[in-house]
């Protein structure tokens, strides 16, 4: 059984479709002199990390992940809480391996798997 | 004050223990589990670090993780909007690990450790802060410009900053999906090598090619500004969809599908390697000039970290450009080094502890930060297993011992060298190394094909006595961590027409590799370059002693140094790992502590035929 149900996965997929923005990432712009982004805040250089409750997770997601859509915020909070790590559970070694293994999916892992 | 730093769940998981700013121990998990680039919670590396420091989890002032999961989640959701209707693969391959592992890293580490230090709390550092801290805090400098460049960590892929005393500050950054590391990895992937572990291969392949795609890459794939900032043209990449690195459009640009792994390497791959190497060097030089402008121009020092900082060819270019007087690169520049950086950042900056650097000595301890095994332990292991050995008593362990090893090298034998503490970072620096005679024209292909079982085109690195480095190489600084490339001195070179040789060789590079190019041919790459390790007596007296003895015997102050492993295997950690690697390959002699073992005296290993299948090819 997957930690994230197919329904939830479909809901994330639908959200992505509804909120699609192909220009969300900055693009090449010949007019700009520099692509560097100035960095002023040191707030997240280092911080305590101990979210446990639904409200703590939701609050931290709001504050640090920049998720502003209430639907996504709620959905992601639920997904995280439902997938809470419990001691002794199997830890998969590769990103993506977990779902593939559980689904018995024959597809090969992506060649590059370290982005998330 | 003891701080435990952790990197995990991406690749190259590691642990590091820092006491009052001093690195006590650091090791990658792969060395213990024998799984290359093992990304799992580094349980065994943690156990080792705590044991080395003689501390229990409850004695730790803090446990620090090298990445901030909330920031990464933000980027994931942003990426999800980019993929839109085509988000299935991204979700399938990434979401579950994010919500069930990375977001619960504090629970996973608490489960692993029993307790997260005195306060039972986890601290997280930003990924690039961890890299920047790993570059600056152990460096010899009180002030330095800092550059970190990797694939991605949270949002950033490149940062430019400044460090002074106990404080570092990021001034500017470039954010995902624009990434020099991912661009390089796209070429690694397309040329049929594995991302990350194959990046070195692409770098080694580059001199065989010509940069014929340089302008095409600049026209189509990356826009580079005069300050070294850049953006990628996402139309040619697929990584943002969670699938492969490149897409069909990328393939069309380079005349067809990617090279299949393990198939013949053609001129196209050589030229692609050469072209992307030139791009990386160009961007880094511009970036370093920019940071020089940005920080106080009186600052003479530059420190580097992040996976791209392992590109020793580019580092060599930066060193020769002399934009900064001094450069120091974190030896574990990839994710493993984040463990040290996170711990040191907590100690120096978060806790505001005083830091003093003397501008000469770093505090990386030669990167010999891993486990060691006593002579007694080794001898007991050999006796218990009935493995014949020749022991050199401590009174003999000096020139007698070194001279014996030098004689063996001079007889064209290949030696597995296992001494002292294991290295932290991807390079073997004389404690877990395979060594040989660099004067031998056949040694490079012998080592590649019969001992390392890897591709014939790959070069080997030289270890040279620090005081003799200039006699062999065009280098004017120390390179103790094998992170700088420089050319073999002109007076030592022999005529070699690479382009003609490659044309004649067609698809088989072996004759090209075997052509003598200098009086130290086994460590002279086809463009006369070498990835140099300078060795001094202070950092590693045994390794220094061996090279010195070889010099006294032969007049040559250089030996070949390659990591003690076979292809796909992590570098050996224990005497047992070393013995097995020795017996499974055509290595001639094994030096384990103060014991010398000869292959012909060893009993055959039985039921070991399938050992090669245990390691996935890198």
What can be said about this structure in brief?
By secondary structure, chain A is mainly alpha-helical. Chain A is 39% helix and 5% strand.
Textual characterization of the structure:
The complex is a heterodimer of chains A (116) and B (618). With 116 residues, chain A is mostly helical. Chain A is built from four helices and two strands, in the order αββααα. Chain A has a domain of 36 residues. Helix content of chain A is 39%, strand content 5%. Chain B is of the alpha/beta class. In chain B, the strands form four sheets. A nine-stranded mixed β-sheet of chain B has the order 13-21-20-14-15-19-16-18-17, sandwiched between helices. In chain B, strands 3-2-1-4-5 form a five-stranded mixed β-sheet, with helices on both faces. In chain B, helix 3 runs antiparallel to helix 4 and helix 9 packs across helix 11. The longest helix of chain B is centred in the middle third of the chain and has 28 residues. The radius of gyration of chain B is 23 Å and the shape is globular. In chain B, 61% of the residues are buried. The mean pLDDT of chain B is 95. At the A-B interface, helix 1, strand 1, strand 2, helix 2 and helix 3 of A face helix 3, helix 4, helix 5, strand 5 and strand 8 of B. Strand 1 of chain A pairs antiparallel with strand 8 of chain B, so a sheet runs across the interface.
The greatest interface between two protein chains, and residues involved on each side, is: A-B, 72 and 96 residues
Element pattern of chain A in H and E? HEEHHH
Strand content range of chain B: 15-25%
Protein structure class of chain A:
mainly alpha
Question: What's the CATH superfamily of the domain at 391-603 in chain B, by name?
Answer: Carbamoyltransferase, C-terminal domain
In terms of quaternary structure, the protein is heterodimer
Shape of chain A: extended
The main sheet of chain A comes to: none
Mean pLDDT of chain B: 95
Head-to-tail CA distance between termini of chain A? 22 Å
User: Within the largest sheet of chain B, what's the order of strands?
Assistant: 13-21-20-14-15-19-16-18-17
CATH architecture of the domain at 391-603 in chain B: Alpha-Beta Complex
Give the helix proportion of chain B (percent range).
25-40%
**Helical segment count of chain A:** 4
Q: Tell how many strands the DSSP assignment of chain B holds.
A: 21
Q: Average pLDDT across residues of chain A?
A: 84
CATH class of the domain at 391-603 in chain B: Alpha Beta
| Unreliably modeled segments of chain B | none
Residue fraction in strands of chain A: 5-15%
Uncertain stretches of 5 or more adjacent residues of chain A: none
């Amino acid at each position: 059984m997957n930690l994230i149900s197919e329904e939830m996965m479909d809901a994330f997929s639908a959200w992505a479709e509804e909120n699609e923005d192909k220009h969300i990432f900055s693009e090449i712009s010949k007019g700009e002199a520099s692509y560097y982004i100035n960095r002023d805040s040191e707030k997240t250089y280092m911080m305590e990390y101990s979210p446990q409750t639904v409200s703590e997770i939701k609050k931290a997601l709001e504050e640090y992940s920049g998720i502003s859509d209430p639907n996504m915020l709620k959905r992601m909070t639920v997904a995280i809480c439902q997938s809470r790590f419990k001691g002794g559970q199997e830890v998969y070694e590769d990103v993506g391996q977990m779902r593939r293994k559980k689904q018995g999916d024959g597809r090969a892992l992506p060649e590059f798997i370290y982005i998330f | 004050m003891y701080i435990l730093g952790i990197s995990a769940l991406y690749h190259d998981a590691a642990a590091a223990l820092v006491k009052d700013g001093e690195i006590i121990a650091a090791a990658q998990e792969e060395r213990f589990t024998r799984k290359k680039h093992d990304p799992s919670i580094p349980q065994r590396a943690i156990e080792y670090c705590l044991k080395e420091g003689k501390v229990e989890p409850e004695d730790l002032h803090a446990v620090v993780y090298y990445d901030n999961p909330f920031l990464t989640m933000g980027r994931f959701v942003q990426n999800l909007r980019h993929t839109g209707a085509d988000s299935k693969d991204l979700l399938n391959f990434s979401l579950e690990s994010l919500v069930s592992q990375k977001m619960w890293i504090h629970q996973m580490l608490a489960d692993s450790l029993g307790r997260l230090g005195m306060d039972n709390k986890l601290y997280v550092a930003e990924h690039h802060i961890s890299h920047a801290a790993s570059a600056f805090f152990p460096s010899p400098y009180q002030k330095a410009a800092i550059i970190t460049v990797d694939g991605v960590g949270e949002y950033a892929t490149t940062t430019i900053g400044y460090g002074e005393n106990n404080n570092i500050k990021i001034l500017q950054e470039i954010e995902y999906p624009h990434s020099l590391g991912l661009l390089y990895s796209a070429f690694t992937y397309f040329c049929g090598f594995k991302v990350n572990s194959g990046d070195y291969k692409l770098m080694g392949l580059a001199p065989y090619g010509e940069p014929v795609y340089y302008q095409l890459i600049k026209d189509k794939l990356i826009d580079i500004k005069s300050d070294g900032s850049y953006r990628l043209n996402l139309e040619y990449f697929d990584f943002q969809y969670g699938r492969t690195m490149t897409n069909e459009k990328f393939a069309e640009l380079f005349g067809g599908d990617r090279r299949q792994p393990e198939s013949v390497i053609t001129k196209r791959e050589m030229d692609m390697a050469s072209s992307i190497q030139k791009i990386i060097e160009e961007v880094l030089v511009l970036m370093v000039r920019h940071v020089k402008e940005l920080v106080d121009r009186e600052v003479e020092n530059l420190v580097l970290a992040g996976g791209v900082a392992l590109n020793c060819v580019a580092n060599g270019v930066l060193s020769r450009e002399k934009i900064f007087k001094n450069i120091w690169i974190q030896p574990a520049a990839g994710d493993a080094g984040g463990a040290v950086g996170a711990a040191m950042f907590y100690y120096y900056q978060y806790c505001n502890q005083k830091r003093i650097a003397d501008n000469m000595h770093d505090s990386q301890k030669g990167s010999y930060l891993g486990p060691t095994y006593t002579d007694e332990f080794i001898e007991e292991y050999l006796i218990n297993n009935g493995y014949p050995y020749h022991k050199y008593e401590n009174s003999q362990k000096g020139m007698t011992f070194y001279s014996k090893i030098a004689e063996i090298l001079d007889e064209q034998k290949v030696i597995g060298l296992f001494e002292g503490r294991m290295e932290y970072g991807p390079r073997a620096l004389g404690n877990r190394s395979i060594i040989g005679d660099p004067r031998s024209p056949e040694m490079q292909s012998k080592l590649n094909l019969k001992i390392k079982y890897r591709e014939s085109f790959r070069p080997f690195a030289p270890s040279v006595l620090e005081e003799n480095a200039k006699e062999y190489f065009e280098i004017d600084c120390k390179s103790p961590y094998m992170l700088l490339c420089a050319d073999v001195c002109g007076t030592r070179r022999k005529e070699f027409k690479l382009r003609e040789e490659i044309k004649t060789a067609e698809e088989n590079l072996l004759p090209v590799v075997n052509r003598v190019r200098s009086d130290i041919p086994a460590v002279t790459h086809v463009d006369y370059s070498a990835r140099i390790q300078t060795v001094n007596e202070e950092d590693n007296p045994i390794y220094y002693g061996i090279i010195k003895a070889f010099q006294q015997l032969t007049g040559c102050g250089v030996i070949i140094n390659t990591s003690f492993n076979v292809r796909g295997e992590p570098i050996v950690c224990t005497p047992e790992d070393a013995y097995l690697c020795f017996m499974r390959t055509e290595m001639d002699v094994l030096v384990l502590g103060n014991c010398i073992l000869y292959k012909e005296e060893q009993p055959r290993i039985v039921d070991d035929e399938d050992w090669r299948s245990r390691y996935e090819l890198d």
